[in-house]
Amino acid sequence: MGLLICYDVEYPEAVRSVALLGADVVLVPTALTHEYSVVPDYIVPARAVENQVFVAYCNHAGVENGMRFLGGSLLADIDGKAIAAAGAGDALIIGEISQARRLAAAKCFPYRADRRPELYAQLTSKLRRAVLGQRLVHCSAVVRARVRCCFLSTPVRRA
Questions:
Q1: Is residue 159 part of a domain?
Q2: Count of domains in the chain?
Q3: Which of 1, 5, 12, 114 is at 20 to 30 A from 27, Cα to Cα?
């Protein structure tokens, strides 16, 4: 399992890094507003496909301090399709993922196996140093054959 924060998922290198470190699922808490709807609509599904990982994208929803947040949390499947998705409001979404599904999808989308890192070795060596020194966090975890994933997309209520 890997954890990226907000804007990090918009960079292919960040998601690829946690995938290469062994993540089967990438968790992404975020707080995007409406003008960034391209992220959950196109970027998050693309990251799932190109890295053969499930992406649990949890976006802030509702209005806080006059700012309207997008909502649109989703659990993206290996093929980029939403296993579960929320609308613009508060939502609890639950989706089921499986290791068997991920392994089967790797046959259809062999992006990890077909990589040619020798073509971009200079970039990856710089990236490795940057990733290890910044806020990318890799969490070691055993992902069982079937995992239930749920997360809550709701505004923070302050007293």
A1: no
A2: 1
A3: 114
